[in-house]
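Write out the bound-state structure for 4-nitrophenyl phosphate.
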Amino acid sequence: MKLLVVCLGNICRSPMGEGALRARIAEAGLGSWVQVDSAGTSGHWHAGRSPDPRAVACARQHGVDIAAQRARQLLAEDFEEYDLVLCADADNLREARELAPAGFEARAVLWLPWAGIDGADVVPDPYYGDMGDFEHSWALLDTAAQATVRRLSRRGDSGIIPA
Ligand code: 4NP
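---
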């Protein structure tokens, strides 16, 4: 099972989402079965960059080290490699589906609703915000990560992979 977390720049939300998901997967003992990466729909501005220092600090506050991650752009080939492309917001989802090869569009989903989170559909972009905004994004991403692990743990769940 390969999961790709996607946002716009791959320097704030998706690196935090990758870190949270990796940590929750390891905690659940699913590390040998589930692989996680992240990418940005517009990674060309930031490709090769480290995560935003505020994202690194926020993850570290929660015991997760994301400093070694490097940004990259989402590629059409990713849709053949990854079972699910977990998008942070509706723009990310639209752009991911536009990039997807024919027949692979359904692999891109809006992460929070897919994970069954109530009360929020999107992870807001904290880039122009403050540490409180990063904390809010982290809380949503980590809640989604925990819910994702619960969903993946039910291996009989036929709804895991979109048709
Ligand atoms: P991300 O945040 O999509 O969560 O990585 C952003 C990063 C950079 C920009 C916008 C959002 N930017 O405009 O450069």
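---
Residues 7-13, 40, 45, 125, 127 surround 4-nitrophenyl phosphate (CB under 6 Å).
The chain is about 40% helix and 10% strand.
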